[in-house]
Structures are given as structure tokens and as C-alpha cells.
From TrEMBL:
Membrane-crossing residue ranges in chain numbering: 78-101, 156-175
Protein's UniProt name: Uncharacterized protein
Subcellular locations according to the entry: Membrane
CDD domains: SQR_TypeC_SdhC
UniProt keyword terms in alphabetical order: Heme, Iron, Membrane, Metal-binding, Transmembrane, Transmembrane helix
InterPro entries in UniProt: SQR/QFR_C/D, Succ_DH_cyt_bsu_CS, Succ_DH_cytb556, SuccDH_FuR_B_TM-su
Topology versus the membrane: Multi-pass membrane protein
Species of provenance: Lodderomyces beijingensis
Chief subcellular location: membrane
Length: 176
């Protein structure tokens, strides 16, 4: 049932507050309800939703550095957490099942891959990891109340992107 209240009150003026007694300040509200069935309630809601303004779709907005980096920070966080939990659960499951799977077998399996695949796998892991770490430091800087202006936000965003390119390349291709 949808109850549609009907409020009929008048606000007292300042002078009436001074001269009125406390009992005259209490106003009554009359509430009227309408008995409706479940399907009628649904129809009313559908009609109300049709009158709402439609929000423009994201395609009309120009991508901004702020929301792109925020989106990638969340995506890389979820991906890194999923990879961490996947490896952790694999180690746990193989130890319970008695299957031989340890760090040394993982390293030897990785070393047996072709060099191009090794560098590709390292790059796929390194760039999101470095980006997420650096963007996390950026958020910590914001938590201290620094760089919260529009130029500061863009300056730190471009700094994160530049350092991600440099450090990600180093970790993926030069770090052993």
C-alpha cells in the first residue's frame, strides 16, 4: 500500500511565537491514504520513473585524467587481489591435496617458457602493480591534504603515469 501524505500546516510568524501559548503552536497534520493493490503500486512507480530526467550517457563526456586514473586504480586493485588470492589458494589447495607445487616448481616452470612470453608475463604483472602502488602513494598524499587543487591533481596524475612508464619498464625488462 502506498500512503500519500497530505500536509496542511502553516508556519507561525515570529510575533505569534512570542504571544502564543505552547498548546497553540502544535499543529495537526492530516494524512490520507489510498488503498491500492500490488500491481497498481507497480504501475504508479513505473509512471513516476517515466517522468524522471534521463542522465546523459558517458559517451558524451570527454574522458578526464581524474576519472580514468580512478577507474584504473580500482581495476588494478581488483586484478592484483584476484591474482594474489588465486596463487595463495593454489598453494593451499595443492598442499592439502598432496600435489607437489611449491615456489621452486613455479620458478622452473616460468624459466622453461620462451623469453618473449617471460617478458610479456612480467610486463602484464609489472605495469599494473607499479601503477597501483604509485597511485596509492598519490592517494596518501591527498590524505595529508596536499595537491588537492585541480592543477595539483593533474600534476600528480601525470607524475604517476610517467613514473609508471619508467618503473614498469625497469621492472618488466631490466629487473631480474
Amino acid at each position: 500500500m502506498i500512503a500519500r501524505p497530505s500536509f496542511k500546516t502553516a508556519l507561525p510568524t515570529t510575533t505569534s511565537l512570542l504571544v502564543s501559548s505552547p498548546s497553540s503552536l502544535i499543529k495537526s497534520r492530516s494524512i490520507s491514504t489510498v488503498n491500492t493493490a500490488q500491481n497498481e503500486e507497480q504501475e504508479i512507480l513505473v509512471e513516476q520513473r517515466k517522468n524522471r530526467p534521463v542522465s546523459p550517457h558517458l559517451q558524451i563526456y570527454q574522458p578526464q585524467l581524474t576519472w580514468v586514473l580512478s577507474s584504473f586504480h580500482r581495476i588494478t586493485g581488483v586484478a592484483l587481489a584476484a591474482a594474489f588470492y588465486g596463487v595463495t589458494c593454489t598453494f593451499a589447495a595443492t598442499s592439502v591435496l598432496g600435489v607437489h607445487f611449491d615456489t621452486q616448481s613455479l620458478v622452473s616452470a616460468f624459466a622453461s617458457l620462451p623469453v618473449a612470453v617471460q617478458y610479456g608475463a612480467k610486463a602484464v604483472a609489472a605495469y599494473p602493480f607499479v601503477f597501483h602502488c604509485l597511485n596509492g602513494v598519490r592517494h596518501l598524499v591527498w590524505d595529508f591534504g596536499k595537491e588537492l587543487t585541480i592543477p595539483g591533481v593533474y600534476r600528480t596524475g601525470y607524475t604517476v603515469l610517467g613514473l609508471t612508464a619508467l618503473l614498469g619498464t625497469y621492472v618488466a625488462f631490466f629487473y631480474q
